Amino acid sequence: MSDEIEIDIDALAKRMDGALNSLKGDFASLRTGRASGNMLDAIEVEAYGANMPINQCATINVPEPRMITVSVWDKGLVGAVEKAIRNSGLGINPVMDGTTLRLPIPELNEERRRDLTKVAGQYAESARVAVRNVRRDGMDQVKKAKSDGMGEDEQKLYQDEIEEITKAHIATIDQALEAKQAEIMQV
Asked: Is Protein biosynthesis among the key words of this record (predicted)?
């Protein structure tokens, strides 16, 4: 058994945590019938000859549960921001009021709720795949360490530890998905 060969389990766990954090961001952008500034995070505005996130050219506020306001900083970009929101696929029709856009959030119907639960499932599956990729990388490190002289007992311990953190992260993803789907289907 060699003391020099060591697998950094903490680094693998941090990478898996990154997949969870990404999933939480994806879930925050899903519409649940309540207004949230995160709904607009994925929208890119064509401004100054380049695409930029909407939050880099406007201030996003949620003054009430069913309304989002977008205050555009440059008057010349109001039309571009409105067009980006309309074409985003969120199903929101902005109302222009000078340099401010008001976005009334409509109630979700049953069909749209089911569609959103499917999207949430896709986000969760992407996170599971990311976690499994980290597990594969960890297992590859263990195999390489074995060929570099790691003992079989030590190899088995590392493999078991990697499997354990993988299962814990997958379980957390599944719990987050169930909670998000319940939130989406709540009327």
From this structure: yes
| Three-state DSSP class for residue 109 | coil
φ and ψ of 35, to 5 deg: -70, 140
Residue pair 108/116 in contact by the 8 Å Cβ criterion: yes
Q: Residue 3: helix, strand or coil by DSSP?
A: coil
| pLDDT tens profile 120-134 | 898 999 999 999 999
CATH architecture of structural domain 9-27+109-185:
Orthogonal Bundle (1.10)
Q: Looking at this protein, which amino acid is placed at residue 43?
A: I
Q: Which residue ranges make up each domain of the chain? A: 9-27+109-185, 34-104
pLDDT classification of 91: cutoffs 50, 70, 90: confident
2 phi and psi angles, rounded to 5 deg: -105, 135
Asked if domains 9-27+109-185 and 34-104 share a fold, the reply is no
CATH 3.30.1360.40 fits 34-104, yes or no: yes
